[in-house]
Specification:
Chain lengths: 229, 229
């Protein structure tokens, strides 16, 4: 598949076009790092923005929920959506109020969800989701029962029409402000995971190593020798 | 002001009503902890969900941007919006695939933005925003010039019609799954800040202490004695 995203009237970045990234790799990376996406839809002119867990497999973005969900029922109609994932990476502190900013990665996808009906695709999508969150876990948990499978709906959205915006780097102060004696730079912002908190039914069960899924953003227990960030 | 949020057809939580919180304090706390919110609007039936920096003052949520922004121009028309802030607090790993979940706090506000035209309110809103991000900073940075003030538009949204959903606690496994020998519990998720990265114009300037704004989620430099999380 071509790595260049097709630009459409909806996906062309008009403000700060230098921050636009029209690459499929960048789009995938943003959704792969996202656990939550914000789904936008409208009913009779009123917009709704609902946070939901998301995962990517191939060129599709997946979400799931109870079949009784108001949002999912609405998506069943093929309603147009915009789904956005955002990572705040840093606060940019400039010498002037005006040039304060943020470093971030964000992606907006446009399209319409379709429900995953095929049983094999349904179960495989959950296996992928689980393995992304907790590698190796799928083979140990109880698989969905017939009743649970029926109650849980999965929807997918093609990642074909999307826009990506990214800001990196230090402040962009005006030259005449650069000598001003106020601290300038970036406060990095990171999402970190752990240490794991067992529930009462985990007693005596070895703690699995899911750090692979989170790379350097994993905070291990104090007794563990993994490096903390 | 009454701490109980008025329930409307838009804000009544239908799915998992036990996770609904109809308290103004909880709504404010979610936006106070949020740096980015997702603004949803629709143009000719197509939804858009745009991430943007946000801050709260009193009973209003504020956003800002270039006056030339497509989104802000659209908001000028008094278009209905939904603005959502979400904090992912933990991944919930249950014994069954079905009961996997997430801990989170999210708030959706409905209404219409109005532009802040009054000059005193405009500058005061930026002072509040800056001081929330970096306490004490406003008095040291260069204030906005007349040109910058004209180019930067501020919008506010009343926090009157809003819904809040929160999940906390361990997995809710079915009794017949509790003895299953697979680890169960929570992987906490946190947003952390720092250590600060000076730019080239910060040389020789003392690093300010902004940790107050971020509480325990501040990661100090290794040479510093503050506790890291």
């Amino acid at each position: 598949m071509d790595n260049t995203l097709t630009v459409t009237p909806k996906t062309r970045v008009k403000r700060a076009p230098k921050r636009a990234v029209y690459e499929r790799d960048a789009l995938y990376a943003i959704f792969d790092a996202a656990i939550v996406a914000h789904v936008g839809f409208q009913i009779e002119g009123q917009p709704f923005v609902i946070p939901t867990l998301c995962w990517r497999a191939g060129n599709s973005l997946y979400i799931h929920g109870a079949g009784s969900s108001r949002m999912l029922k609405h998506l069943d109609s093929g309603a147009p959506v915009c789904v956005t994932a955002t990572h705040l990476d840093g606060l940019i502190l400039a010498k002037s109020a005006f040039h304060h900013s943020a470093n971030y990665r964000s992606a907006c996808v446009f399209g319409a969800f379709t429900r995953v009906i095929d049983e094999l695709e349904w179960i495989e999508s959950f296996r992928i989701f689980t393995e992304q969150i907790a590698p190796g876990r799928w083979d140990h948990i109880r698989p969905p029962s017939a009743k649970e499978t029926k109650a849980t709906h999965v929807y997918k959205l093609s990642l074909d029409e999307a826009s990506v915006k990214v800001r990196t780097g230090p402040p962009n102060d005006d030259p005449e402000d650069q000598a001003r004696p106020v601290w300038s730079g970036e406060i990095p912002v990171r999402q970190v995971f752990g240490p794991m908190q067992p529930d009462q039914y985990a007693e005596g069960i070895a703690e699995p190593d899911y750090s692979e899924a989170y790379g350097r953003r994993w905070i291990a227990p104090a007794s563990n020798e993994r490096t903390t960030e």
